[in-house]
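Our collaborator T.R. sent over the components below with a one-line note: 'Predict the complex.' Nothing else. No constraints on interfaces, no templates requested, no preferences about which chain binds where. So this is a plain run: every listed entity goes in together, and whatever single assembly comes back becomes the starting point for the next discussion.
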Amino acid sequence: MKFTKVTVVGAALACLLSSVAVPAFADTADKRIALSNNYAGNSWRQAMLTSWEKVTGAAVSDGAVAAADAFTTAENQVTEQAAQIQNLILQGYDAIVINAASPEGLNGAVKEACDAGVIVVSFDGIVTEPCAWRIAVDFHQMGKTQVEYLAGRLPDGGNLLEIRGLAGVFVDDEISGGIHEGVAENSQFSIKGSVHGDWAQDVSQKAVAGILPSLSDIKGVVTQGGDGYGAAQAFKAAGRDMPIIVMGNRHDELTWWKEQKDANGYETMSVSIAPGVSTLAFWVAQQILDGKDVPKDLTVPFLSISQDTLEESLENTQAGGVANVEYSQEEAQGVIAGAM
Amino acid sequence: MSRFLTVNTMRTLLPALSLAAILAAIFYLQPRTMSYFGLNLLLNLAIPIALATIAQMFILCVNDLDLSLGAFVSLTACITATWLYDTPVLGVLALAGCVLAYAALGALIHLRNLPSIVVTLGMSFVWVGVAVLILPTPGGKAPEWIRALMTLKPALIPFPIIAAVVIAIIVHFGLMKSAAGVVLRGAGGNPLSVERAGWSLLRIKVTMYALSGFFGVLSGMALVGLTTSADANIAERYTLLSIAGAILGGSQFVGGRVSPIGAVIGAVTLLLTGSFLSFLRLNPDWQIGAQGAILILVLALRVLIDRSDKRS
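Returned assembly:
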């Protein structure tokens, strides 16, 4: 079974609505888990750390684990994070959850951890060392989903504008690759223009405003998150018909979408990665410590918001933040079972 | 002051005492580190930093400053993880080329009388550019023999300690005790008199830069041996770490006044400062500041010693 195809909206809502009830865990009650994080300088990472604190704090007080401390390196440097991981080994943690500065550069330190009997779980920024577990995001599928949604909305197809992320980052290549694969499978669409929005609304707005005069009749805009609102502003300023712009779960994007929905019934979708993936990694580490059989490669489902779930998602998203899902132990077990 | 506690011995002892103090604090905070396994983990990343600090020390010795060292080490790490792994001959040639490039830089700086800071700052972009060309995305593999050497587990004494002592002793005897070393250091302290005595300043500068390049190459190779793969920005921090390590170890910006043993101790101390602060569970936002504060503390002690030197 391929888990990435599963839309997690249901699970997400269930998670948001249900209270966090965690039973006692005798086997891991004395285990300590550390988070080694390479960077905390944007809203997504801040939300990731807040989710970690919230979920692991409850897990510690419920006796699921003895400790779950977060450590962030100050300079986002490979050598610094390698030293940090080695220090965490020396501090006697039973498992280390890593969001890595480099997929390859930490392999030496990760190997040291494995050799010392420490469980290593990497997520988001994953490591390639075979002894570690990986919770990867299927960015490729995230791009493809957008085209598939547009194919449902626009059976006759049409011209698309693609907004890409930061050039040279592998996430950008992955999402864009997925979008282009989707377009290849749905030949009624063609990508007429492509700009780099750097995952920032202001950059996207400028880039889209720059390319718009050379494009005629754009039906849809495929994006990477953090760029949909800027694109909408550019279309509005140019006095063009508003195309279907795929949003990226940011608060400003959802707010704009809600305004348009109320004013003229505007319909679209929104998709991105929930920062709460850190809590999935935490529970995966706990499950491994508990002696459960967990596959080395897991895929984290992305979080999509539809016309019907918009209000609810918007309500649960902080101003300036990103729509989020935090995982409970049962949901993590579900992800693991899905990958078996 | 007694014969045994002269200003000079105090100056020499200061780096060692700072190291002992920080090591004692770490042992107290985290007794687990007081073992073969613990020392190995605590110190293994110090080897590439110590080598880079020695490289920086050679440049400091001729009264220059190298702002490209981090980028250069990153480049040699990339070459080690790609060419040296796939086609060893090409790899060795490329690394030798890196050393030659450093020697040529020394010649350029001397002949055109350019400020080393400007030249090396410019070259740092060249090194990063070449590194990105060789290894556009993080990856590569460490050659087996380097990996084997860096993960060596000798009996009784952990490998990082042996490596640090060997590096310090070799450079100490080469630079501080040999006749050639005296001339090399003299060129930094008093270039005019060395030139009048018939030595070619050009050759001295080229030699020092080549030595620096050589140790930079060793640093990159050691780093890859530890990380198992490279990244075009892997050693970005080494520029500042190497300068701070050399200064912490007793070298001075005035040229000629350097200490290889001190440089190695300084590099190790600097790395341990990071571990110490993380064992303290200090917020990472404060850690860089705290690291700086420890540096200032040690340097302030040295100024105090120097002052008593002048007074006496």
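Summary for T.R.: Chain A has twelve helices and twelve strands.
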